[in-house]
UniProtKB/TrEMBL annotation, chain A:
A GO cellular component entry from the record: membrane
InterPro entries: Peptidase_S54_rhomboid_dom, Rhom-like_SP_proteobac, Rhomboid-like_sf
Organism from which the protein derives: Kolteria novifilia
Superkingdom to which the source organism belongs: Bacteria
Protein name per Swiss-Prot or TrEMBL: Rhomboid family protein
Signal sequence annotation: none
Keyword annotations from UniProtKB, A to Z: Membrane, Transmembrane, Transmembrane helix
Keyword Transferase in record: no
From TrEMBL, chain B:
Pfam families xrefs: VIT (PF08487), VWA_3 (PF13768)
Source species of the chain: Kolteria novifilia
Signal peptide coordinates: 1-25
Biased composition (Low complexity): 672-692
Full protein name: Vault protein inter-alpha-trypsin
PROSITE patterns from the UniProt entry: VIT, VWFA
Domain annotation VWFA: ranges: 337-509
VIT domain ranges (all copies): 53-181
Amino acid sequence: MSAEYPSRATEWQGSGGASGIAFHLAPWTTLLAVATLVVHFQPIVTESVGAPALLEYERAAVVSGQWWRLATGHLLHWSFGHLLLDLSAVVIIGGVLERMVRERYPTLLLGIAGTIGVSLCVFQPDVLVYRGLSGVASGLFAALLVMGLRRLKRFDEWGAMLMIVALFFLTKIGYEGLTGELFLATGTVGDIGDPVTLAHVSGALAGAVFASVIALPIGESPQRIDQRAVS
Amino acid sequence: MFSGHCGRAVMLAVLLSGTATTARAEYTEFRGKPISQGRMVVAEADAERIGLTQDPATPSQQRSSDFVLKGTKVDAEISSVLARVRVEQTFQNPFSDRIEAVYVFPLPENAAVDGYFFKVGEKVIRGVVKERQQARKEYEQAKSEGRKASLLEQERANIFTQSLANIPPGAEVTVHIEYVHPVDIDGSSYVFRFPMVVGPRYIPGQPLGRPSVGRGWAPDTDEVPDASRVTPAPLPPGKRSGNDVAIQLTIEGAMPIRDIVPVTHEVDVKKVTPTRSVVRLKEKKVLADKDFVIEYRLAGDQVVVASLAHRSQEKGTFAVVIQPQHGVNAEDATPREYLLLLDRSGSMSGRAISQLRILAQHLLDGLNPQDTFRVATFNNGVRSHRRQPILATPENIADAKAFIRGIRANGGTEINGALHEIVAPREGEVGRPRYLVLVTDALVGNDDSILATLKTPRFADVRVFPVAMGSAPNDYLIRRAAELGRGFSLRTTNEDNPAEIAQRFSRKIAKPVMTDLEIEWGGLAVEEVLPSPLPDLYADRPLVVMGRYAKPGKAEISIKGNLMGEMAATSLSLELPEQEAANDALEPLWARQRIRQIWNRQLGHESADAKKTITRLGIEYQLVTKYTSFIAVERDDEPVLAGQPRQYLVAPMLPEGMTALASGAFATAANANGPARKASPRAPAAGAGSASHVATSQPAPVFSNSSSSGSTSRGGGPIDIVCLGAAGALAFGCSRLRRREEDEEG
């Protein structure tokens, strides 16, 4: 798929209603959201388990060669509440991030998802089945943070806010990495077993690294990246 | 377009909104830890609605010293295959008025409760068994006269109510309950279990047009007319009761004891002699929030075939343990139809549902390719993987596993509907034996209605194998369902490895079953043999047969049966002595077994004859039954006060691992089905004009983290609302930066 991103002047001129505009502005994020919803509701609507059986991160299947599950497993969720929270974060962050990195966004997305999958496979073999976009959301958060900080030319109010957010995020990831417990959990989404905080940590690391190294090659300014993507 | 200041204000609002959400504390914390997956919380409004909150009118009850039930001490002795257990419940009145304490508690469903007294200081007041209504009448009279009195009533075979009237202010009263039961035998292992908590039960049906007969949170309904007597309002999640439990178990083996395996609690084992060991809880006081389970083996790797007898009167009683000696290596490869029915009700939330998912998937691994299977889950309704049984091909099994992994716990426990759904009348092939594997915690109030269903013709060709889940399952329903369904039951605690349990189950079920069992008594004049008729005999599942005799003798008895179409036989020596003072527990056990049989037969159509016989047996053998109760009244002292004492209901803890979703689900399911199922919002009603109390609670000083650690089906954890706020802030900030940059460049 070749995504054509509108310039800022034309970015609100998409057609086809809200979904059309969303696709116009952030096609990969829109596709990801639609795919996640389809995969979630397919078993309920069709009363069969096609999508989970084929896409779920199931360690045994991954080891036997079904590598796609490393990435597609994130599309599945344990409950609608789980999906709603995870997907909201991905859409909020991804929508902005995709506008920044443009055609490199799918690479970034796949890189984060794949890294989380591999990390689980290697470092947490007791997790036989995994679902959820929260790891990817952490990765996108880290990536957007890197992008934002790199765009920061002076330390003004926006800079202060980014620093606060960065501090919060680092604290969260650090805490989760060190303790294996969720940093905060004020929502309730039903029974999904113990959280795998490794997904958050590895996702965040992958997001930061991919954003720094791949999506934003060192020595190239954010402006040039944007300009090159537009041209 | 937002101005810069406006944007910052929005940003701050977004950030602060997350903080506010945390600080506002709309939810109750669970076990003193931040809320996360597997530790479901319940909104305080809901908690209040379902009666989980404390009575605001009694703030003084916050003090830990205010607990009325101070502790439970258990002293058990196992000799051969019989366990005699002495339970001591200590009640103390911390109030300035006399109180009546009411405590609903569990005992093993096969226990014969044959001893009862209460103690005030050094004074012992012994109980006698009387017809239930009469005992209740005497208790109420003593209560109103200001006398100390206690009453022990049976609600279910495994649920009892202890009422203790007129505990003086500041006084301590201990109630002593004694019972015997045969220990469970599983392969070469002996299993001892002591239940500690009555888990919250799902109550189906419509409310009856009369006041409820008990003080529980559920009103009586047409399906569970005594619902209010089996639904004590539990403490809120994360709160502990004052009931500290101490357990000591003495094991006297016929052979040297080896491999004492503590299943649920840490214990200290003291080996007194090779055949005698004493087991104590490592912690002197444990919480009453899950069953205590311990396994042990004797040298020799197989159960010693035992025959026991006791005779002190005209008639003696005997018991023989029949250990199947067949099929140890054989496997019955007959293709079967497996119906896997999985409980996804709210009470399964937390650790139990994680265990269920793993167990069920491994159960599927145990199928043979020529078997057929069908998987269905149930709560208020039934959800099937397929509408018809399908072949156990690798593809079908993989598909079913994905279905199982998607199971979430919520809602009610409509087992009857689920049973009818999955055991549909057959179409086509009829020769394939049907095995129904019911995986559940069985926490329902309509036990007998479900058992009656299993006796209907629809289930005539179905063998039922219940697998109990959770930390405090309903043992009565689990075991009786296996008994009536001609199968066997298994138990998975939260500490067990469900994969191992599934493998063990698959191994057992693959062994051939000995049917048409008969015993030739070799000329011995035995009578009233139980169970009758003899059930089928499974490998590694020894059968205890009991009976009476009038004439002593000794003979070689022979056990015959049909094993895969061939006659199989085994024999053992049985001596019926002229006099035998030992094993006096056999008499009440035999009587209990007889009562059990009568009860099972009358399920679904309670009869006056059955009631009369059970009452007679209860009074003759001094046993607590559904129709007979222990009553003890202090008659020596002059009553000092008249009038009704304040009633205090002892609240049990929520079973370990059960999240608040469970109790919330009971209420939610109830609301969805009309007012009958609505959890009672009331604090227990006042008794005769005096204020009642909801049991007190305090934060647990020590709590093990018993959430879903060890679960293999997991998620990264949902994005928290605070993180979502931060994400919004970040996205907005970055968006603003980008635009500013472009504006500056443009």
